[in-house]
Specification:
By secondary structure, this protein is an alpha/beta fold. The protein is built from eleven helices and nine strands. It starts with a strand and ends with a helix.
């Protein structure tokens, strides 16, 4: 594959509602090398693809994902608000709902694209059940070579490794005013949980960090970047993947 890999952030979320089947199909159609997406559990323990812990932003309803069963969640429209904010034709994306992880995996059975699966753990109590659900489906769909599980809650990655040591993981890092960081601190945090990759917010990117990560065999992905100038920077310092809302634009600059 050419580098850097271009990964659709929540699908092609610049042109379709994030984390919907429409966004994932758009990312595939654009020629993306893969997608990034978020996974949570419903009240009845089904892994579903949504970023927020509630439906306020994407659907305009106050329900929390963890309070709904899959049968209650699957009928909620999460596309119409995107159409309104983008001033699209009335009814655009009105049929888009929150996909299950199984639906997403079924869509990607027909290709060989990379899947960055972010586990959304709002509390330590969620780690085991969410990790078990994700690992089970990864194995059922024989996607282990193509999936990288990422999480800000780094102990959750240790849970993944305890379930299946062969599943690749990425340690997620973002700038935080309350947590001073150094290059070595990030490297130490990632290696302590046996991560195979770093997933860095673009403001954390330093050439020294990328080089040190690569020296010890860690892949490096950077999120979320929509400026094609990042393609040149990625090539110059060895970044492996760029996670972007607009894969078509980034691919045009690669």
């Amino acid at each position: 594959m050419p580098t850097p890999l271009i990964i659709g952030h929540r699908g092609a979320s610049a042109v379709a509602p994030e984390n919907t089947m429409a966004a994932f199909r758009e990312a595939i159609a654009a020629g993306s090398d893969g997608i990034e997406f978020d996974v949570r559990l419903t009240r009845d323990g089904l892994p579903v693809v949504i970023h927020d812990n509630s439906l306020v932003r994407t659907a305009g309803v106050s329900d929390r994902v963890a309070d709904l069963t899959w049968s209650e969640l699957e009928g909620i429209d999460v596309g119409s608000r995107f159409a309104v904010t983008r001033k699209l034709a009335p009814g655009s994306f009105a049929t888009e709902t929150v996909p299950s992880l199984e639906q997403l995996f079924a869509l990607f059975e027909a290709n060989d694209l990379i899947l960055y699966l972010e586990m959304k753990c709002d509390s330590p109590s969620e780690r085991v059940l969410l990790a078990e659900a994700c690992c089970r489906l990864i194995n059922e769909y024989s996607l282990k070579p193509r999936v990288i599980i990422e999480c800000f809650d780094l102990p959750a990655l240790e849970v993944v490794k305890s379930i299946d040591s062969e599943i690749k993981t990425a340690a997620l890092f973002q700038p935080a005013l309350t947590t001073p960081w150094t290059v070595q601190w990030i490297i130490n945090q990632a290696t302590a949980v046996q991560a195979s990759a770093l997933a860095l917010h673009y403001r954390l990117v330093r050439k020294s960090l990328v080089e040190q990560a690569k020296d010890i065999g860690l892949l490096v992905a950077v999120w979320t970047v929509d400026d094609p100038a990042w393609v040149y920077r990625a090539k110059s310092i060895g970044i492996d993947a760029l996670i972007t809302n607009n894969p078509a634009a980034m691919l045009a600059g690669r």
